[in-house]
Structure to design on (675 residues):
């Protein structure tokens, strides 16, 4: 079930913002409304749902409304119209006390510039959410310590935020967001203020953390690489409108419109596409068919080697034409001449990592799943053409 | 173009009479509270032997600041005692402390209200401008008619003159707390009171203290003016020396005020800074 459902969520800034709603309904653009009625459309009829436990990335350039959108979810900014349903309850209709409870128990937040309280220690910062709930000192210290440990800050609890580096400060921010164990964590450009290497580490750690604590994370970013790396699904925003929602692959491979296409054209595909995108169907042979059949198959399909699999399509090895001829001459079976030492990768191996492997071998690389069943093969040409553009081979991705 | 003069002055006098007539008991109560406070503080400052008090103040100076400040306190206070100005100085100090404490008690909450509402701020700001620019002598007169001669109208006039910095800087300090921090406090479900106590006041504290420091200095500057309506103390000595053209006596009393001023200033400025020795 979706943990958050957003329906027709709209935010207009300015005086008497209700005026803009019928205009948006008529399809006026943000620009036209700004010019003719002097109102700023922050978010225009956003509609999406977030599943429990996923990392949902909202991505867009500055001014696209992404930071406004995330603040509408916990009502740091009041929506002009629309609904935010948290497990079926409309956040927009909550009174002040209900909203406070929702923010205390259900939804945490991590900020771009950390927003740590400078007069409090690291521990007291992490405790803040529990403290305002009135959790007693002992319990909140224990839980804050657990959260600090989770983000790798054990031993720093008595430091002041300004004694820490940027990366460590944001870990404090993360610990503060996690300490009261919310269902949802909002992360507003949480890593944008960090330098690139640290940012990458933090992304990796967030993914690891996520696999342990299983939070629903709404992650805001302007960085497409970041979105692709951590997002289970990505919503792309432009001028307050959500242009496309989909998995990273869907956004890259099937951009919904010219805007998305231009947005993703500079992406380093080798870090996004995986073996499963470029693999093709291999020519197979079972070992009991014998070398004569194998040679015939090679001749028919115009290849010089065959992949040998058992009944469960588990990969046994490769037989080349020369090996098959040899076996025929010396009256051996396929299993006798089989080459078992062949490069194998899993379907989610990035093309980037495939390069190295491919330079070391003249054979195609076999793509196998966790129980060694052959899923496909990758040949050099397919990798290169995938990187050259959007020419993913037919029948490749499945 | 013959517009008659507006009866502004007469109106103010009518208001003064009306207030004295109908709010007598209120003024009586305020009078008792303030004179009680002044007398209490004066007793604390004058009953113990002078040397004991000097040691206590020096210890406080050492605790808050560093040894240089403690040394200054000892030398300065011994000089005051030597000049025979100890008791009048303590009387003036009692007046200043009473006025400052009341100004902080009244001023900080008003400053908080100003920070939380633009409406309150826009109402209070012109009143503060008025209070600070209206010559102090002018509101000595109604203070006397409400509270009769003595130290109390002096305290009231000092509060009126000295309270604006506390209000202004409390407002400023709270408004300067970065919006990101306020947003973070909101995002974790703080009530407005929690936000104020756990975030805004602690962060605004250095600014508020700068205002309090200004308030103390301004109320100290009122001791001579207060003496014109019967407040006792070192201010009265200055006033008397001026009216009798006694340069030496005036200078001695003036020095006592300067020493007290420097001590109060340094003590309050350093009270909240991290200690370095």
């Amino acid at each position: 079930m979706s943990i958050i459902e957003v329906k027709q969520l709209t935010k207009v800034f300015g005086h008497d913002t209700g005026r803009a709603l019928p205009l948006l309904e008529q399809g006026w653009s943000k620009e036209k409304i700004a010019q003719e009625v002097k109102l700023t459309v922050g978010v225009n009829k956003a509609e999406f749902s977030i599943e429990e436990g996923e990392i949902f990335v909202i991505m867009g350039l500055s001014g696209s409304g992404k930071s406004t959108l995330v603040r509408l979810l916990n009502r740091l900014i009041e929506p002009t119209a629309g609904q935010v349903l948290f497990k079926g309850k409309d956040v927009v209709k909550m009174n002040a006390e209900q909203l406070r409870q929702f923010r205390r128990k259900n939804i945490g937040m991590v900020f771009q510039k950390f927003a740590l309280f400078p007069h409090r220690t690291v521990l007291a910062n992490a405790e803040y959410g529990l403290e305002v709930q009135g959790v007693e000192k002992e319990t909140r210290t224990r839980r804050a310590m657990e959260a600090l440990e989770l983000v790798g800050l054990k031993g720093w609890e008595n430091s002041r935020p300004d004694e820490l580096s940027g990366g460590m400060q944001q870990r404090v921010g993360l610990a503060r967001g996690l300490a009261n164990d919310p269902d949802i964590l909002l992360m507003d450009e949480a890593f944008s203020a960090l330098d690139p290497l640290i940012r990458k580490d933090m992304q990796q750690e967030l993914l690891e953390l996520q696999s342990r604590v299983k939070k629903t994370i709404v992650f805001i970013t302007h960085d497409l690489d970041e979105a692709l790396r951590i997002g289970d699904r990505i919503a792309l925003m432009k001028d307050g409108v959500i242009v496309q929602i989909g998995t990273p692959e869907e956004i890259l491979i099937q951009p919904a419109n010219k805007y998305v296409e231009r947005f993703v054209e500079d992406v380093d595909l080798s870090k996004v596409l995986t073996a499963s995108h470029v693999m093709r169907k291999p020519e197979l042979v079972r070992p009991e068919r014998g070398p004569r059949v194998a040679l015939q198959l090679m001749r028919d399909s115009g290849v010089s080697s065959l992949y040998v699999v058992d009944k469960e399509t588990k990969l046994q090895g490769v037989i080349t034409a020369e090996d098959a001829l040899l076996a025929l001459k010396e009256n051996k079976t396929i299993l006798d001449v089989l080459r078992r030492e062949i490069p194998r990768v899993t379907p989610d191996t990035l093309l980037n990592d495939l390069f190295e492997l491919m330079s070391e071998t003249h054979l195609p690389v076999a793509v196998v799943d966790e129980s060694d069943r052959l899923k496909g093969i990758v040949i050099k040409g397919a990798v290169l053409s995938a990187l050259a553009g959007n020419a993913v081979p037919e029948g490749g991705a499945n | 173009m013959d517009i008659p003069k507006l009866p502004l002055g007469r109106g103010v006098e009518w208001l003064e009479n009306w207030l004295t007539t109908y709010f007598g008991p209120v003024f009586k109560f305020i009078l008792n509270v303030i004179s009680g406070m002044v007398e209490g503080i004066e007793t604390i400052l004058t009953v113990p032997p002078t040397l004991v008090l000097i040691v206590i103040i020096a210890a406080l100076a050492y605790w808050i600041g560093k040894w240089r400040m403690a040394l200054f306190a000892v030398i300065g206070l011994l000089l005051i005692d030597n000049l025979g100005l100890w008791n009048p100085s303590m009387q003036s100090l009692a007046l200043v402390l009473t006025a400052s404490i009341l100004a902080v008690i009244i001023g900080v909450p008003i400053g908080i209200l100003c920070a939380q509402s633009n409406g309150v701020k826009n109402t209070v700001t012109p009143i503060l401008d008025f209070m600070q620019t209206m010559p102090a002598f002018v509101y000595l007169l109604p203070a006397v008619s409400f509270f009769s001669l003595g130290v109390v109208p002096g305290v009231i006039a000092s509060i009126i003159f000295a309270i604006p910095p506390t209000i202004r800087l409390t407002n400023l300090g709270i408004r300067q707390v970065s919006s990101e921090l306020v947003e973070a406090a909101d995002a974790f479900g703080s009530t407005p009171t929690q936000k104020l106590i756990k975030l805004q006041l602690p962060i605004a504290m250095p600014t508020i203290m700068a205002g309090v420091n200004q308030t103390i200095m301004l109320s100290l500057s009122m001791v001579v003016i207060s003496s014109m309506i019967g407040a006792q103390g070192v201010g009265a000595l200055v006033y008397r020396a001026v009216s009798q053209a006694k340069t030496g006596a005036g200078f001695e009393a003036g020095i006592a005020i300067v020493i007290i001023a420097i001590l109060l200033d340094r003590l309050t400025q350093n009270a909240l800074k991290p200690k370095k020795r």
Q: What stands out?
A: Chain B touches chain A at residues 178, 180-181, 183-191, 194, 198-199, 202-203 (CB under 8 Å). Chain B has one domain: 23-270. The mean pLDDT of chain B is 88. Residues 23-270 of chain B form a domain with the MetI-like fold fold (CATH 1.10.3720.10).
